[in-house]
Amino acid sequence: MPELPEVETVARDLRLELVGRSFVSAWVSLPGVLRFPGSEAFVAALPGRAVHSVERRGKYIFCRLDGGDDLVVHLGMTGHLRVADGDAEVVKHTHLRAGLDDGRELRFDDARRFGRLMLGSRAVLEERRVLPALGVEPLSDDFTPERLDGLMRRTTRTVKAALLDQSGIAGLGNIYVDEACHLAGIRPTRRANRLTRKERAALHAAIRSVLTKAVANRGTTVDDYRDLWDARGSHQEELQVYGRGGEHCLSCGTVLRRTVVAGRGTVYCPRCQR
């Protein structure tokens, strides 16, 4: 599933292409991809709306429209957003085509159908519970060592489970939790409330470092992720542990162990991580 760096990459690309443009048409082939409103209301409400801004919140993309509503996109596991010429070939599993006033289209395709589209004000989307409560942004000034201290100290869950909880920290997923834990020298199987102050500080720095580098590399492509132009990210070339169970640690040469934590495949170095 695309995580913060991948979604941030798509949001930045969309910002350049959509801000100042208006939607002139909308077509939905799979009503089930719409979380709110229904397909008839969605198709009727989008045309004529101008895009004022595009931003990312957690793993969600928010396109702010005039009138105060947002077109919200969650890419799910295999979702792709594309901006294409109106007469360009339509790829398989395209569920949304939204015409723009310059003749191009915003398109959304999703083979596994776990992606979600929403249209409405944030207040309404939260009230309808189609938009979850999201925690602090880990690349924001609000994500301080003290903020992470509070999250870690008050839970007996594993470090990985605590970091994956979107209501605490928004945008982290399987890839970057494993990578941050490795950089910090902390096993993801540890109990969060048992970390020392020094370990929590190291974890805070590692989260920011790993995410910043991944954003600069335009995300990690290990399966389906592509950017707005169908290009792969390059951060997979920098991965230290994710997806490398059974291989040798790039830092010390020890064989990396694979286990399951919080229902997710997890890889760590038994020597570098304590």
Which CATH C-level class of the largest domain is it? Alpha Beta
Low-confidence stretches: none
The Cα radius of gyration reads 20 Å
- The termini sit apart by 27 Å
Beta-sheet strand percentage? Answer: 15-25%
Helical amount: 25-40%
CATH architecture of the largest domain: Alpha-Beta Barrel
Shape: elongated
Strand order of the largest sheet: 2-9-5-4-3
Instruction: Work out the count of structural domains.
Output: 2
Overall structural class, as computed from helix and strand content, comes to alpha+beta
Query: How is the main sheet built?
Result: 5 strands, mixed
Mind telling me the CATH superfamily name of the largest domain?
MutM-like, N-terminal
Number of helices: 7
Topology:
Elements: H1 4-18, E1 23-28, E2 34-36, H2 39-45, E3 51-57, E4 60-65, E5 70-74, E6 79-85, E7 94-100, E8 104-110, E9 116-120, H3 122-127, H4 145-153, H5 159-164, H6 174-184, H7 197-216, E10 257-261, E11 264-268
Parallel strand pairs: 2-9
Antiparallel strand pairs: 1-7, 3-4, 4-5, 5-9, 6-8, 7-8, 10-11
Helix pairs in contact: 1-7, 4-7, 6-7
